[in-house]
């Protein structure tokens, strides 16, 4: 079966790619992630896919436009679930449309391998996109491959991100940490020294 694989990131691609190749699938990849924020994070993830492809002959189309404007316009909603649903629909609908343009039989996504994603929602949106586009959604539960994928990514020295990608997930990841916070006394200390 000819299948277009939506790639969320290089580390999450490794396990699903091996599994689908073992099934005899004819695969190509599609990196389309307008959700990734900030811009430098987006560039790191694009670069990681390119580094991965230096050692793998998977044909991949990489959409390198920074899609923040489109993401904000089409995805924002007052609840996390609604935002995630809109984001998934945006990315998977574009993937399915590209698969249809290329005459491929199905599409899937490496998001099905992430233990941090709402797996049921990814599947639900994939099936809805399939119904809307007429392209089959190839569902697999890739989560058991997650650790192996990330270990292989570490061995290949691929960039491993620490949050899903959007500004909301970045906030959720770091809001309860002190990472990158300034700990010095700054102007308060300077003011105290100047006080007689």
Number of strands: 5
The biggest sheet, with number of strands, parallel, antiparallel or mixed sense and barrel status, is: 5 strands, parallel
The CATH superfamily is known as HUPs
Level-2 CATH architecture: 3-Layer(aba) Sandwich
H-E order: EHEHEHHEHEHHH
CATH class call: Alpha Beta
Instruction: Give Rg in angstroms.
Output: 19 Å
Topology, element by element:
Elements: E1 2-6, H1 10-22, E2 26-31, H2 39-53, E3 60-62, H3 68-75, H4 80-101, E4 106-109, H5 119-133, E5 136-137, H6 146-155, H7 167-174, H8 186-194
Parallel strand pairs: 1-2, 1-4, 2-3, 4-5
Helix pairs in contact: 1-6, 4-5
Give a short summary of the structure.
The chain is an alpha/beta fold. Helix content is 51%, strand content 10%.
What does this structure look like?
Helices cover 51% and strands 10% of the residues. By secondary structure, it is of the alpha/beta class. It has a single domain, classed as Rossmann fold, CATH 3.40.50.620. Strands 3-2-1-4-5 form a 5-stranded parallel beta sheet, sandwiched between helices.
């Amino acid at each position: 079966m000819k299948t277009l694989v939506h790639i969320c990131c290089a580390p999450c691609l490794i396990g699903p790619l091996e599994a689908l190749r073992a099934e005899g699938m004819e695969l190509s990849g599609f990196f389309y992630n307008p959700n990734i924020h900030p811009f430098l994070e987006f560039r790191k993830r694009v670069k990681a896919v390119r580094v991965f492809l230096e050692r793998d002959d998977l044909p991949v189309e990489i959409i390198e436009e920074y899609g923040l404007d489109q993401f904000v316009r089409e995805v924002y909603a007052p609840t996390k679930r609604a935002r995630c649903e809109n984001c998934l629909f945006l990315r998977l609908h574009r993937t399915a449309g590209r698969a249809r343009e290329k005459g491929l039989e199905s599409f899937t996504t490496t998001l099905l391998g992430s233990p941090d994603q709402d797996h049921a929602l990814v599947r639900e949106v994939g099936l809805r996109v399939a119904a809307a586009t007429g392209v089959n959604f190839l569902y697999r539960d890739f989560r058991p491959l997650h650790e192996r994928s990330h270990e292989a990514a570490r061995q290949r020295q691929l960039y491993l991100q620490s949050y899903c990608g959007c500004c909301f997930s970045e906030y959720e990841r770091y809001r309860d940490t002190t990472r990158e916070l300034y700990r010095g006394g700054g102007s308060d200390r300077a003011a105290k020294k100047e006080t007689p």
